[in-house]
RNA sequence: GGCGCGGUCGCCAAGUGGUAAGGCAUAGGUCUGCAAAACCUUUAUCGGCGGUUCGAUUCCGCCCCGCGCCUCCA
């Protein structure tokens, strides 16, 4: 198997993944800020992270992935105050919603999902270390990071802040800083605001310190991979580097991976443009979880993804093709025996699929490997060159593909129902369906096509598609 | 202005110094009582202009266009 190559934002090149701990890859993934439902752009990044971890697992590597939930920031504090509830109460709803959304998209839970507010002491400890190194200064009860003391600042985002002057821009924090580039590690309490009483004084953490502290706590002072959306490269990740490397004297992260943004109809997604979607918005409009997952993973993560209604339909149809194939494999009767070519063909598809992912998660290439196989196997079936013993081989290959894609399971209705969308009444049972199909078969046998078509239509009206197959058997599926 | 991603068939999207994967859609055909599924066939010279080269979509330069980031937005 080829080495896994990933594009490191730090070096701006493809690098071979060499885990620090043999056989185990340690990943920190920036999760959502739980002040609202996560949106479809967030999930582009989360699906990318899921594909990464699933691919590593498929290689037999252990994965130790930590994802944070940012449950304290300005918006949360404001919204919680406006709602008259505690921060914890306010965020709990969105934390739960996030887990539900993850489940709907078949996102595997990371080994650890950690909350910022559960790690205040770890952040305080890290800030103390930075204080000892004289990298900080106090101002009006807050603690700031003095960027001038860290010469490597900017190495990740390649940003040049030299031209910026103190006071040149409006300070969003409205605190006094020595230099506009400096950022808050610890924020002084404001009247009426929730704060923590700590050894470095009362207040609440700044934005970036949570990730630096939690990443190192769970994964060690140097991690293999850190992931997030491209917008996080600056300032968030840049600041995490500034907070960790001078404190430990070690590189914080070996490989930084950043997912490009999702845009909608060619424009940045924003509430003011009215093109801002949560998963639930899409479910309410009839989209299936599998269509969304497929679309999000089908475009390689370093490419901007233009999300449109049309592309969602295309994704749904692509998934349908794969599912039809899986269904054919399992239901069609084949003659006894085996064709040695089939096993070879499946092995090649698996190798190509893997090679695509190993090349910086080139999912588009990997999908092509699958569709090539689908066409070749369908052709072999049509020609009678596909036999009984071949089926399990191809079924197994599909399972391996789907261990990463996770779109083959016909569970969209179930996932939607879990969230209160889609058809609420349960579908017809297989027994009832089989019974009607038997009736239809009898009608067909006596060439009563009027009756047989009636039954087919009746089933269709209830969301069941009936297909006659070449070998005379009848296959059905939920619409 | 700086940094970054991109401009390949109607749409989505790989890829290579020697004339371009795959998916969706379209059209015709095969199969079918009909349909569906499946299969076959069909649709591109790769934003523009120069340069390097025997040869460039693929390398270099310039230009045009789209999108993003440049302090709390994945």
How many separate structural domains? Answer: 3
* Major β-sheet annotation: 5 strands, parallel
Distance from first to last alpha carbon:
39 Å
Helix content: 40-55%
Strand order of the largest sheet: 5-4-3-11-12
Give the mean pLDDT: 91
Strand content: 15-25%
CATH class (first level) name of the largest domain:
Alpha Beta
Please state the second-level CATH architecture of the largest domain: 3-Layer(aba) Sandwich
Strand element count? 17
The H-level CATH homologous superfamily of the largest domain, spelled out, is: HUPs
Structure description:
Helix content is 45%, strand content 16%. It is an alpha/beta fold. The chain folds into three domains: 241 residues, 3-Layer(aba) Sandwich (Rossmann fold), CATH 3.40.50; 151 residues, Isoleucyl-tRNA Synthetase, Domain 1 (Orthogonal Bundle); 49 residues, no CATH class. Strands 5-4-3-11-12 form a five-stranded parallel beta sheet, sandwiched between helices. A five-stranded antiparallel beta sheet has the order 6-7-8-10-9, covered by helices on one side. A three-stranded mixed beta sheet has the order 14-13-15. A hairpin with a 2-residue loop joins strand 9 and strand 10. Helix 2 packs across helix 3 and helix 10 runs parallel beside helix 12. The chain is elongated, with a radius of gyration of 27 Å. The chain starts with a strand and ends with a strand. About 3% of the residues have low confidence. The chain binds one RNA strand of 74 nucleotides through helix 1, helix 6, strand 14, helix 9 and helix 11.
